[in-house]
Design a protein that fits this description.
21% strand; six-stranded antiparallel beta sheet; Glutamine Phosphoribosylpyrophosphate, subunit 1, domain 1; Rossmann fold; 3 domains; 19 helices; eight-stranded antiparallel beta sheet; globular; binds fructose -6-phosphate; 616 residues
Length: 616
């Protein structure tokens, strides 16, 4: 949450930063600001609102200079006001800082500083850090040097309890910018005669593809032509220069009105990418080299714990069904924010998976670390290959879905479910699945991308249905077995982008209370493909219809009998039960998308949200 970009080089910093902030806006969009260093002064411009508000603000008076730091905020401490926007300056006004993360002990630090006559202008925890750096810097009376600033940042960070990704400038030091990270991502972009700091490479990929992903407790000093990476406790730190593996175009809208729609349409390709090179026809299994486990080690696994948040946890829930039914290994899903504080009894042969598109979700990261602390092998299923979870996990499987920018997760979900299927197949083939079972699963899986294309062709019809229900008071999503998690995922999509209250449940739970909500204003969406529980779903649909509740059904081609009892029916191609979630979710993503558009909602940047949740 919150996006940072800093620039130091030969070009005007402000336009580069504004354009970079646009790429980071998915991380937060409550307020934005920048600080540019010029002629021994730091000029700060900031305002509440989005990057375009900052641009209008700058139109009258853009500060000129070749180094600067900037920020787009997702509010944690203090509302989205001009004063709470970053950058923040220290007591002297010479030091400016942008911060992503949370300073948990900010109040006690602020009390100490206020007792020393420091005056604060915001409610934020971040301003305290700016003052603390200034306090440490001006404790000394040496000449202004990079080392003095580095020492001050180091000393200030030792006081801090919490998480941070920061960029710091000093008015008297035009050739240096300091960055540091603990718990919030920070990348150094290496250009020619210019360097960058950013929360995410998407902000800098237009300028350079050479990047250093900082580790926790790393500090970096960058100048236009040089950089040094240090550890928080002094001395040099290890680093590696990586080449960014996606292009700027992949992160563009390319003609789509919204990233969410673009990403929904990318799913035939992203699902294919998740399985590409990972299917062995000869052995009728999947090959997941990244697991870093021998066949012998995999065979000893007797329990699997899957953890993630939000959409990733719903993909994990589908995984639970897949692993249990195809591999016959007990699997369970634990929400990361709960797991991190639980004392889950596990034994040596429990394998953990952390699912996270961004690979930066703080709760998932903490749950993973807790698992590792207990001696478990934790494998990551991430999209962002340079993310903290990807780097700290003991192995894993990349999604290769390409950048997902829409705040509502879509293609990452189907990629995660695809990988869950590959995992279940791998483990199943080591246990009771025959070669012919394995071959059937592979053949069916390979047919999925084309089936998704078929569903996407129904977009116009789905849009019409969406428009019909857009003004509903609330919505219920119901599904069973493999599609019970899809009901939850579809309800999450509906809530987060259209703000219509929705909840998802196993269909048969209706009569245990939820049916009280059914009314002509509260439609029910049944996910009822032609599977082992189709008839059960039909009975539940009848119960809703008997109470005058409108019903929209997602079912399989040929199940035309539903047209008699449902108000609207959307068809998916035939597929086995265990693959149906990869298809049923597609019309539901489109359904919530079109409802949100119909209601005039900001689909890619829903209110109060940010894509990457790096605070607890
Ligand atoms: C919902 C959504 C969130 C994320 C969740 C986990 O559309 O995007 O629920 O799924 O914040 O994010 P990652 O997968 O990055 O860990």
């Amino acid at each position: 949450m919150c996006g940072i970009i800093g620039y130091i080089g030969k070009r005007e910093a402000a336009p580069i930063m504004v354009e970079g902030l646009r790429k980071l806006e998915y991380r937060g969009y409550d307020s934005a600001g920048l600080a540019v260093l010029s002629g021994g002064r730091i000029a700060v411009r900031k305002c509440s609102g989005r990057i375009q508000d900052l641009q209008s603000h700058l139109a009258e008076n853009t500060p000129s200079g070749v180094s600067g730091i900037s920020h787009t905020r997702w509010a944690t401490h203090g509302p989205a006001t001009d004063n709470n926007a970053h950058p923040h300056t220290d007591h002297s006004g010479n030091i400016a800082l942008v911060h992503n993360g949370v300073i948990e002990n900010y109040q006690s630090l602020r009390d100490v500083l206020e007792a020393q006559d420091h005056v604060f202008h915001s409610d934020t925890d971040s301003e305290v850090l700016a003052h603390l750096i200034g306090y440490e810097y001006y404790k000394k009376t040496e000449p202004d040097t990079q080392e003095r600033l580095l020492d001050a940042v180091r000393a200030a960070l030792r006081w801090v309890k919490g998480t941070y990704g920061i960029a710091v400038l000093h008015a008297e030091l035009p050739n240096v910018m300091i960055g540091a990270r603990l718990g919030s991502p920070l990348v150094v972009g290496l250009g020619k005669g210019e360097n960058f700091l950013a929360s995410d490479v998407s902000a800098i990929v237009r300028h350079t593809r050479d990047a250093i992903y900082l580790n926790d407790y790393d500090l970096v000093a960058i100048g236009p032509n040089d950089f040094d990476v240090y550890s928080l406790d002094g001395g040099a730190a290890q680093f590696e220069v990586s080449v960014v593996d996606f292009s700027e175009e992949q992160a563009e809208l390319t003609g789509y009105p919204h990233y969410m729609l673009k990403e929904i349409y990318e799913q035939p390709e992203s699902v294919l990418n998740a399985m590409r090179g990972r299917l062995s026809i000869e052995e009728s299994t999947a090959v997941l080299g990244g697991l870093n486990m021998t066949a012998q080690e995999l065979r000893t696994i007797d329990r699997i714990v899957l953890t993630g948040c939000g959409t990733a946890s719903h993909a994990a829930m589908v995984g639970e069904y897949l692993i249990e039914s195809l591999a016959r290994i007990p699997a369970e899903v634990e929400i990361s924010s709960e797991l991190r504080y639980r004392n889950l009894p596990t034994d040596r042969d429990t394998l953990m998976f952390a699912l996270s598109q961004s690979g930066e979700t703080i709760d998932t990261l903490a749950a993973m670390r807790e698992g590792q602390r207990k001696g478990h092998r934790v494998l990551g299923i991430c999209n962002n290959v340079a993310s903290t979870i990807a780097r700290e996990s003991d192995g894993g499987v990349y999604m290769h879905a390409g950048p997902e920018i829409g705040v509502a997760a879509t293609k990452s979900f189907t990629s995660q479910v695809t990988i869950m299927t590959l995992l279940a197949l791998t483990l199943g083939r080591m246990n009771h699945l025959s070669a012919s079972d394995g071959k059937t699963i592979i053949d069916e899986l390979k047919a999925v991308p084309e089936k998704i294309r078929t569903i996407l062709k129904q977009d116009a019809q789905i849009k019409k249905i969406a428009q019909k229900y857009a003004r509903s008071k609330g919505m219920l999503f119901l599904g069973r077995q493999f599609n019970a998690p899809i009901a939850q995922e579809a309800a999450l999509k509906m809530k987060e982008i259209s703000y219509i209250y929705a909840s998802g449940h196993p269909s048969a739970e209706l009569k245990h209370g939820i049916i009280a909500l059914v009314s002509p204003e509260t439609p029910c969406v049944f996910i009822a493909p032609d599977d082992s529980v189709f008839e059960k779903n039909v009975s539940n649909i009848e119960e809703v219809k008997a109470r005058r509740g409108p019903v929209i059904a997602i079912t399989t081609e040929g199940k035309t009998e539903l047209e008699r009892i449902c108000d609207d029916v959307i068809y998916i191609p035939k597929c086995p039960d265990y693959l149906s979630p990869l298809l049923t979710i597609i019309p539901l993503q489109l359904f919530s998308y079109h409802i949100a558009v119909e209601l005039g909602c900001d689909v890619d940047k829903p209110r109060n949200l940010a894509k990457s949740v790096t605070v607890e």
